[in-house]
Write a structure and sequence with these properties.
The chain is about 45% helix and about 10% strand. The chain is α/β, with parallel strands linked by helices. The longest helix has 25 residues. The chain is globular, with a radius of gyration of 20 Å. Adenosine-5'-triphosphate binds next to helix 3, helix 6 and helix 9.
Length: about 280
């Protein structure tokens, strides 16, 4: 095995230090010191998926705590693929995936957290956000959809919201899937040329690509302002899909191992029942 770091050390590698400024162009979009054999990586991902399924069953049975996984990325960064590959095998009863698109008129007529708060995971559940409330400090800022004081205030509002969730028993994992501009070009090109991928293409992909630098700056500010000790950010090299899946699966499984959910003891005296 060419894997030179163990799983928990590896998880820390992509963790940003809370409050420390970060330059995304200095962070690699490719993984290193890892399996150099795809087969090994796939075998480990299989094992992690089995473990994740077991941990999720216990979290669900325990019915006390919650896990929220936030996936952010530039277009074609691999959020959908991460959901498909990492969560394959978990019980759909306890995992809820929400994709956040451009807000509807009704959503826009409320505060920006309204649509988010109503879908946070309940006790025993895992919630996966495919995009999230972080869009509200990215798109409106870069595309100038709201005045600056409105999006600026949102950073603190997000911190308050995430603190509320974590103080209410929710562990939050925030992942930025970091792809290079070249890799995005390849993936968007495939959307334009492969009939099976046409449906994924959107005008917004091109608009946001043109403003790449401004999106990177907006992300960097979100990492430094909303990366707290309790709820830090992970920046995951995501040009290689196998590396991305494995790195994210490792962090999620490691987090659940630490949460160590337990099957609850019976709340009644089971000996009193006679099924005969
Ligand atoms: P992919 O990453 O594969 O391109 P996607 O996440 O872009 O998929 P779509 O449904 O095609 O999925 O697009 C969602 C769009 O909605 C994105 O362009 C995103 O930036 C935008 N969006 C999400 N939330 C907000 C928001 N709060 N304000 C403005 N735009 C938003
Ligand atoms: Mg898109």
């Amino acid at each position: 095995m060419s894997d030179t770091v163990d799983s928990s050390e590896h998880c820390l590698r992509h963790l940003l230090s809370p409050g420390e400024p970060v330059r995304l162009d200095k962070l690699s979009t490719r993984g290193r010191d890892f399996h150099d054999d795809r087969k090994q990586a796939d075998a480990e991902l299989d094992e992690l998926r089995d473990e994740l399924a077991g941990l999720q069953r216990r979290l669900y049975a325990e019915n006390r705590r919650k896990l929220l996984i936030i996936l952010q990325a530039m277009d074609a960064g691999g959020k959908d693929g991460t959901v498909r590959h990492v969560f394959r095998g978990v019980d759909p009863q306890g995992v809820y995936v929400t994709s956040f698109r451009q807000p509807t008129d009704e959503e826009l007529s409320h505060d920006f957290l309204w649509r988010v708060h109503r879908v946070v995971p309940a006790s025993g559940s895992i919630g996966v956000f495919n995009r999230s409330h972080y869009e509200d400090v990215l798109v409106p800022r870069v595309e100038k959809l709201v005045p600056e004081d409105v999006w600026r205030n949102r950073y603190q509002q997000i911190n308050d919201f995430e603190r509320l969730l974590s103080e209410s028993g929710t562990t939050i994992l925030k992942f930025f899937l970091h792809i290079s501009r070249d890799e995005q070009e390849k993936r968007l090109h495939a959307r334009l040329t492969d009939p099976e991928k046409h449906w994924k293409f959107s005008d917004d992909d091109v608009v946001q690509r043109k403003h790449w630098g401004q999106y990177m700056a907006a992300y960097e500010e979100a990492f430094v302002t909303c990366g707290t000790k309790q709820v830090p950010w992970y920046v995951i090299p995501a040009d290689q899909k196998w590396y991305r899946n494995l790195a994210i699966a490792r962090v999620i499984v490691e987090t659940l191992r630490e949460m160590n959910p337990q099957y609850p003891p019976p709340s009644i005296d089971l000996d009193q029942y006679d099924l005969g």
